[in-house]
Amino acid sequence: MSENLIYADLNMTEPTRPRLQKVTDVQGSTYAEVKVQSLDTNAPASYTSSGKSCSPRTRVAVFVAVIILLLVLAVCRILMCCPTASSPADSKAFSNNSKAALGCPRNWEKHGEKCYFFSQIQEIKDWNASRKECTDMNSDLVVIDTKDELVYLMFQSENYYYFLGLTYSESEKKWKWINNMEHSTDMFNIEGDFTDYFCTVIGHEKVETAPCDGSSTTQNMCEKAANLLEEQKEN
Predict the structure, then answer these.
(1) Cβ density class 139-168: b for 16+ within 10 Å, e for less
(2) Which 3 state secondary structure label does DSSP give 212?
(3) In the chain, how many H helices and how many E strands?
(4) Which residues have C-beta within 8 Å of that of residue 126, sequence separation ≥ 6?
(5) Spatial contact of 228 and 102, defined as CB atoms under 8 Å apart
(6) In 3D, which of 178, 167, 149, 164 has the Cα closest to residue 220?
(7) What dihedral angle (degrees, nearest 10) is formed by the CA atoms of 56, 57, 63, 68?
(8) Which of 17, 25, 123, 157 is most buried, most CB within 10 Å of its CB?
(9) How far apart are CA 203 and CA 205, in angstroms?
(10) CATH of domain 109-234
(11) pLDDT averaged over consecutive 10-residue blocks of the chain (235 residues)?
(12) pTM for the complete prediction?
């Protein structure tokens, strides 16, 4: 009968191709429609856990982020444990230790980074002979570079006169050191006669002119740089 129509709609999954089947009961007016959905094996898989999905691409991104974070932490730890540059305090301490380790030969006096030899022999020598005595000991006549060195030499020469590596150049009309540097009056003033005394001596708390051919009151003084090898020889 027309008022007793019954419809049935079923969805089923089948690994084969889709199929549509329709059965008609003309006498009972009953229709049955079956829809079969095909299974696509190439479709991307999805994972469901607690109502949330996590794709493979998301998991890879999280894994890469964790690896990068671990690398950054490792680099920071290395930099903290093994610094590439010394601090100013460490550099100063190293410099002070290096200076303290510098040594001088026997019978030489150390001051700062220099070694000084003060002759005890009272023998008349001219300026050139005095300089040769220094060069024979791998040194030279003294060149005063700093105020500190000047004060030290004033103290050491309070009872004697010693030749300096400072002479007067008649051609240039200047007082010049043996290293070719011009004398500066900011360091000290030269006292004495400037007419025919073209060499200088330090002694009795002053620097003054002196005859270059020497005198009985003038002794020899040499200087050279202190070094680590001399310290090792002493030990």
Answers:
(1) bebbebeeeebeebbbebbeebbbbbbbbb
(2) coil
(3) 5, 14
(4) 212, 213, 214
(5) yes
(6) 164
(7) 170
(8) 157
(9) 5
(10) 3.10.100.10
(11) 50 51 48 48 47 71 88 83 54 51 89 94 90 96 97 94 95 95 95 87 95 89 84 47
(12) 0.57
